[in-house]
Structure formats: C-alpha cells, structure tokens
Amino acid sequence: MKEQAIKPAYSLWDITTYYLKLGSWGFGGPVALVGYMHRDLVENKSWLTEEEYKEGLALAQLAPGPLAAQLGIYIGFVHYGLLGATLTGLAFVLPSFVMVVLLGMAYQLYGGLAWMQAVFYGVGAAVIGIIAMSAYKLTIKSISKFEPAAMKTKWLLWLFYLAAIVITVTTEREEIILFLACGILYMMIKAPPQWIKKPAVLPAGILISTGFWKYDSKTLQEIAWFFAKAGAFVFGSGLAIVPFLHGGVVKEFGWLNEHQFVDAVAVAMITPGPVVITVGFIGYLVAGFPGACVAALATFLPCYLFTVALAPSFKKIAKDRSVKAFVEGITAAVIGALVGSVIIIGLRSIIDVPTALIGISAVLALIYIKKLQEPYIIGIAAIIGVLIKAL
C-alpha cells in the first residue's frame, strides 16, 4: 500500500513528452512558461501537488539559472530523480535549440540582404521596448514598487540597483564581482550566517567544471568558460542574462557587433522555450554548430547541477535567511545591470524616429494589451520594418 501511495500519477515518458511539447509551443517567456506548468501539471493533470510545485518555484528563484528551465528540471527530479531531471531538461531545451540553430543558418546566409536588414530594423527596436518592460517588471517584483514607503524600506537594494546601472552604463560591461559583493554585503547586514558568528566551521566551496577545456579550439574554450559563468550568475528571468552576454560577447571578446547582439535577443523572443536559448544562436554565429552546442550546454549545465544538488535538501535551504538575503542582494545588482544594458543597447538600436516609435509602441502594447505575447509584437515590428524600408 505504501508503494502504491507514493507511485507518481505519470510515467517518465509522460513527463518527458510534456516538456518536449512545452519546449516546442511554449511562447511568452519565463513567466508564461511557469504559468503553463502550473496550469497543466497541477490544475489539469494533477501530476504534482501545489506544495511540490511551490517548492520547485522557490528553488528556481533562489538558485542561479533561468527560471523556467530550473523549474522544469526540478519537476523532473521530484518523482524520477537524476534521470527525470536530465530528460525533462533536455526535452525542454532541445526544440528551441534546433530552431535557433536553423535561424542562425538563415541569418548567416541572408543577414546581409536588404530584406533581412529591414526585418531586424523593426525587430531590434521592438526588442529594446520588450526588454525595458521586462526590466521594469523585474524591478518592482524583486526590489520594491516605486513608492516612497517601499523604497525607504528597501533602500539598500535600491542603492545596489542604482550603482549597477551607473557602473554598467559607464564601463559598458557587467562586473560579476559587483554582484557577489552586493550579495555578500546584504547577507552580512540582514542575516549573517552562523559560520560568521562561529568561525570554527568554514563553508566548503564547490568547484563546477564544464569540461570543455579539452577542446583544441581556443574559441570553443572561451565560449565554454564565458557561457558557464553566465549560466552560474543569472537569477530569475532569462532576460537577466542579457547584461552578462552583452559585456562578454560584444565588449570583451568582440564576437558580435551591437546589431547582431540585438538580433540574437530577438531570435530568442520569437522562438518558444526558454529565452536563454539565445546563447545557441550566438554560439552558432561565433563558431558554427559546435559553438552553438558548447554555448547552450555550458549555459544550462550550472543550472542543472545547482538544481539536482540542492533539490534533495531544498526544504531546509529555502528557509535559511542568510541564503535569501544573499540572493536578494545579487538580484538587485543584476537587475540594475540589465537596466544599464538596456540603456547602452537602446542608444545604439534606436537610431531614428521610426525605431523610437516602434520601441515605445512595444512597451505600450505590453502594458495595455494584456494577452498580446512578445512573438506577436516581434512579428508586427518585422512587418513594419520591411514597410518602412520599402517606402
């Protein structure tokens, strides 16, 4: 009887197939994807309890990695352990990865043609509007609303947020050290961990290796290391990875120029699945199919490792005030860097009155047309871009 009680209501094949489908048609970004999972798995199918879902969502928010992908990996882990986590993660990411590789091939072939440039003329401006709106939503959700009382209560997080904006705009790069410093400082002030009070016990550091240094190609090694760092320091929304990518891909390594980078973000928004899959498109442009594989694997590997490592003991970890404070501090700085990146990229992508109007229209559409999803906005912007260039 006991075994019957704990037997899941679905098979490993069922959950894997579900995530393969979700990765194929799940448009709308991380918030929408998380909503689909609750609707389908908790409300409609009753495969998970509300408590199991909430535990997974809490872990996805606390640990680094793209929100929707982490939640999917955790749900696979709940009843089927390591194998379930692996299969659901792969099934969720694979469809959008294939799509961005195909789009990368088309972009390489036709990117220089007038019609392709016209498409991304409109799309690039719309992407700036979409990211700006996402940055605003992340700000009020993760730090506080723009109300004097709330801002006064969270004044230190707002300080981290503003400092990250200023530093990002000034240096045109994103500093991981700044994010870590904000997390540690906020933790020390708000909830100092026990090992600080009792220094006899020191925390053990975990070194995570992606294993890509064995490749002969120097570029593939650089891609592996850079994208692994990006995947390990991104919290919450997939769009939070944008400042990391911009600082490395455009500024540090010079793999892409500003317009190509905005196009890469646009490609991620018009495909289903996790927004972070833009790394596959970037990897393809830099080093072909091997580059796409390495970039995607390096980005999602930290997310996978964190999830399967923390899942068994998560109930205890989630209640730790020090962990929560550390994540709050990092998140404030990361969102500030995202806003700074929007400013930098926007100054280069909004080049005239039409692009400014497209960007503003994208923001207004997201505010006032609640059911309008990002891919439709991107599609409309592409048509407008072609019409403007044709005239």
Brief summary:
With 391 residues, the chain is mostly helical. The protein is built from 18 helices and 2 strands.
What features would you describe in this structure?
- By secondary structure, the chain is mostly helical.
- Helix 2 crosses helix 5, helix 6 runs antiparallel to helix 16 and helix 13 packs across helix 14 (278-310).
- The protein is built from 18 helices and two strands.
- The protein has a two-stranded parallel ribbon with strand order 1-2.
Quaternary state, please?
A: single chain
Helix content: over 70%
Task: Estimate what percentage of residues fall within beta strands.
Answer: under 5%
Number of E strands: 2
End-to-end C-alpha gap: 73 Å
Order of helices and strands: HHHHEHHHHHHHEHHHHHHH
Major β-sheet, in short? 2 strands, parallel
- Derived from helix and strand composition plus strand pairing, the structural class reads mainly alpha
Low-confidence runs (pLDDT<50, min 5 residues)? Answer: 1-5, 199-216
The figure for the number of domains is 1
Strand order of the largest sheet: 1-2
Overall pLDDT score: 78
**CA-based shape:** globular
Number of helices: 18
- Using only C-alpha atoms, the radius of gyration works out to 21 Å
Write the layout of secondary structure elements.
Layout: H1 2-6, H2 12-25, H3 29-44, H4 50-62, E1 65-66, H5 67-110, H6 114-142, H7 148-153, H8 155-171, H9 176-190, H10 194-197, H11 218-232, E2 235-236, H12 242-252, H13 258-270, H14 278-310, H15 314-318, H16 321-349, H17 353-368, H18 374-390
Parallel strand pairs: 1-2
Helix pairs in contact: 2-5, 3-5, 4-5, 5-14, 6-13, 6-16, 6-17, 6-18, 8-9, 8-16, 9-16, 11-14, 12-16, 13-14, 17-18
